[in-house]
Amino acid sequence: MVKRWLIGISLLLLLSTGVAQAQEAFVVGADYELVSPPVKTSQPDKVVVTEMFWYGCPHCFRFEPFAKKFAANLPPGVVFEQTPSVLNPRWTEHARAYYSLKMMNALEQTHEALFNAIHVERRRLTSLDTLAAFVAERGLDEKQFRDNYFSFPVETQIRKNVQKEKRYGHSGVPAVIVNGKYLVSASLAGSFQRMLDIMNFLVAQELAQ
Questions:
Q1: What is the pTM of this model?
Q2: How many helices (H) and strands (E) does the chain have?
């Protein structure tokens, strides 16, 4: 009995040491960056994780399965958001498409399909007309999409994104902001899987506060 107890204590010590070492492995400035000052999130009572992406970005396309995996395993009190980046003016066309589709409650049936159309089917969906044609192919209301595209709500979201991204301080996508405080990028993380590990680490840190 005593021997079993000692083995159990030893295993617990090894596990706790391993966790501590894993936590120490993620260092601010080396693995992720601080957002200073922090940016107010959409839900202050939750831990909000925001991915900035662009449909035309091949890295964002490859990160999408990791984002889906993260979103499917959220602990209580955590929210995951995907936000179209407008760092580059030519990315605005896809941001408008995203918010137009969101107004139509059609993101679930178009988000992954739009990624695939661009990166698998190699389609040049870079204008209102080509994007509207894509929407019509999905059986959605093309006129409603066109009406939304330059609407006031969409313009407002674009302006908000411009301001937020300036405060986030990121220079590329995909970029993930954890609770408005931390910036996680593939360039610092080194891989998409490690990026996910850092996100989970920071989420756990926020939940513990």
A1: 0.86
A2: 9, 5
